[in-house]
Amino acid sequence: MNKNFYRTILKHSEYEISKIKWSRFIGNIFHVENKEESEHHIHEIQQKYPDASHHCFAYRYEIQMNFDIFGAPVYTCKYNKVSDAGEPVNTAGKPIMNMIEKHKLHNILIVVTRYFGGTLLGVGGLIQAYGECAKQVIEHAKVIDTEIMKTVKFSYAFDLVPIVRNLVNKYTAKIVEEKYDKDIACEVSINSWYFEAFKKDLLENSKGQIKI
């Protein structure tokens, strides 16, 4: 059976490229799921290198899947943010984001910290330096494929437990939470490729008794 996956990194990684005209560029890459995680890691780097000249960054999260005109899946992120952190406009945050997009990574934050070396690099030099640092920290990180998951909530009577368990196993879904009352309230995490088929099977196999 098919599944939907996206590319991200396994864990935080740091890499410093060779000095460029005495300026240091230190890249840090993180897997992030939301704005709060992203801002937390940015603050961490600012505290780690408090005397740096700039902490430029780019991040994107909350992956979305659409289809192109040929029916092939196209992955984007709902939330995207870049910051030049005091460098000239579009010389830092954008080149970092370009590398994230070029490597087709999602749910990613990259912070590039610069220690100014006393020599101006110019617009072109800055774009190249920040892009190269982002590229190197990506290439030195462990890139992995991760399932794109969605959750579905539904309720059902106790006599429908065998049907639900069978479908959960069929679609390799994971039960996130179950609450027992008169009926069972259930939340399931499932690969997005199976999302609609799973809901359809729940309704059809229960003859409409399962409430989604």
Describe the 3D structure.
The chain has helices at about 35-50, 95-100, 120-140, 160-170, 195-205, and strands at about 5-10, 15, 25-30, 55-65, 75-85, 110-115, 145, 150-155, 175-180, 185-190. It is α+β, with helices and mostly antiparallel strands and about 210 residues long. It folds into two domains: about 5-145, Ribosomal Protein S5, domain 2; about 150-205, 2-Layer Sandwich (Alpha-Beta Plaits). The strands form three sheets. It has a five-stranded antiparallel sheet, sandwiched between helices. A hairpin with a 5-residue loop joins strand 4 and strand 5. Helix 2 (about 95-100) packs parallel to helix 3 and helix 4 packs antiparallel against helix 5 (about 195-205). The protein is elongated and about 75 Å long. About 30% of the residues are buried. The model has no long low-confidence stretch (mean pLDDT about 95).
Please give the CATH architecture of the largest domain.
2-Layer Sandwich
Strand content: 35-45%
Strand order of the largest sheet: 2-3-6-4-5
What is the CATH topology assignment of the largest domain? Ribosomal Protein S5, domain 2
Distance between the termini: 24 Å
Q: What's the CATH C level of the largest domain?
A: Alpha Beta
How many structural units, i.e. domains?
Answer: 2
Instruction: Provide the structure class.
Output: alpha+beta
Proportion of residues in helical segments: 25-40%
Note the total helix count: 5
Q: Summarize the biggest pleated sheet.
A: 5 strands, antiparallel
Overall pLDDT: 96
Radius of gyration: 22 Å
Topology as a string of helices (H) and strands (E): EEEHEEHEHEEHEEH
Q: What is the H level of CATH, i.e. the homologous superfamily of the largest domain?
A: Impact, N-terminal domain
Low-confidence stretches: none
